[in-house]
Amino acid sequence: MQEEKNAAKPFDRSTFIGRRTAVIRGVRFFCALSACRWPIVASAASAAPVVDPTANSPQSLPEAIRSRAKRWGIPFDKFSLDIRDLSSGRRLLGYRDDVPHAPASTVKLLTTFAALDILEARRPDFRFETVLWRRKGDGPEPALVLEGGGDPCFSAESLERMFETLAAQGVKTIEGDILIDRSYFSAEAGVEPQPLSSRYRRTGWEKRWQVGPDAMSIGARTVSFAFVPRAGGAADVRMTPELDGIDWQKTVKLSAGRCVDWDDRLGLDVIRFRDGRRRVVFRGTYASLCGKDSIHISLDDADRFAERLIRTVWRRLGGVWQGRLRSSASGERRTLAGRYVVAARWLSAPLSDLVRQINKDSLNAGAQSLFLSLSQERTNAASARVVARWLDEKGIDRSRLNLPSGSGLDGRTRFVAKFMGDILAAAYADGRGDAADEAAWQAFFASLPVAGVDGTMRRRGIPGVRAHVKTGTLAGTRSLAGYVEHPSGRLLSVYASVSGVEAMPGATAFLDGVLLWMTRLPLPR
């Protein structure tokens, strides 16, 4: 979900951390290749579980997991496991699976699974709608109103298509202000405007995961800087979307070395001018072994970002805008309904595509927008009640669930490992139902990052492992949830979580090892 610096000093903490992380990951990769890392604890012909699947004592754990927990410094009271064979319905391992903990971004699987079921049932081929309204004639009212419909993946390209439609109607000059209507989400949801983070106030930028939900989100108000190595020892830097008043350093030097925590080692500064302009500069170098890669950051609050983008788009289309941008969350446009006509409409991508983007890239704002949209009131409390009723209908025990929001970023979120095991099993079971349920399962499964291939698991390839898992990261939590394809052809579900700051240095290596162990586990007949 979120991933948490280079002048010459007697002690450079960021360099130390980067090197320590590189050593840990290097050791993890070497051990993954070693045949002795996760020894098979029984012959492939075993007909019974190799461990007690419901015991909570460390002595009940397979020796391979117990020894690796010790190797990576994971205390036995700091991790939880729920592993099941979905083909047979057997629980293969449950360890501290009844202990509530913060699951981080793995809770997005609950949000997206519920959304696929609830929203599609409410309206087949569910789409979010964004509307651009144009004022009839002259007047003191805003010339245009951009009415947000909660689309969690509305992009800069979507906005440009809408303004192209406006220009095609013969509009050349926008005489007056543009109002953004953010009233789709209730004011009680407290989502707009979200206060800028302390990092933004200090540095002038923040990472994408820190951007909150918005009823009229445009590209999560972030820009992407793509680094493209070329001959001559440099990488070109490309920013998208380009924004009015934002300039950036167009090249950075290349360096040798492994592609580990490259974005932290690169370093980024934002020079802020009094007239509102920004210039982005990079302090460090880019590792050539990274190939083409990108970082996604926010440089402005929601209104400033939208105004920059609209001015850029409208100028590109040959238009003139004589006004400014303002926003409202009170539904102001509806009080002026008779004065406006629809200039353009935009329908979101299908829900399956939205869920794929949210889970692959762990989009916090997108997941929270989806969560709020589950209820008619569009508040956290109301949506939590909708999810509770849905869980009851599915027969899933929610007694240990605390769901203050839908992204996992809220540290008050709690559930137990068995709960997520039940969610994963229910999604799989739905795929064996009617056509609608099967489509929801296929969309859900396809949304999960594939180890070593894409999403948040792109750089976590594990030799011999085909895993489809959602990751979770908070300051004191590392977790994963999803499915592992066993060599036998059977599908296993897994939820694994490590908690506690002291366990974080080895947590990712331990979790990846759990996935590897699952592929070597002899399954009962």
UniProtKB/TrEMBL annotation:
Organism annotation: Sutterella massiliensis
InterPro entries, A to Z: Beta-lactam/transpept-like, Peptidase_S13
Under Pfam families, the record lists: Peptidase_S13 (PF02113)
State its Enzyme Commission number(s): 3.4.16.4
Keywords attached to this entry: Carboxypeptidase, Hydrolase, Protease
Report the superkingdom from the record: Bacteria
Q: What is this protein called?
A: D-alanyl-D-alanine carboxypeptidase/D-alanyl-D-alanine-endopeptidase
- Output the PANTHER family linked to this UniProt entry: D-ALANYL-D-ALANINE CARBOXYPEPTIDASE, PENICILLIN-SENSITIVE CARBOXYPEPTIDASE A
What are the protein's GO molecular function terms? serine-type D-Ala-D-Ala carboxypeptidase activity
**Where would you find the membrane-spanning parts of this chain?**
none
State the family named in the UniProt similarity comment for this chain: Belongs to the peptidase S13 family.
Gene name tied to this protein: dacB
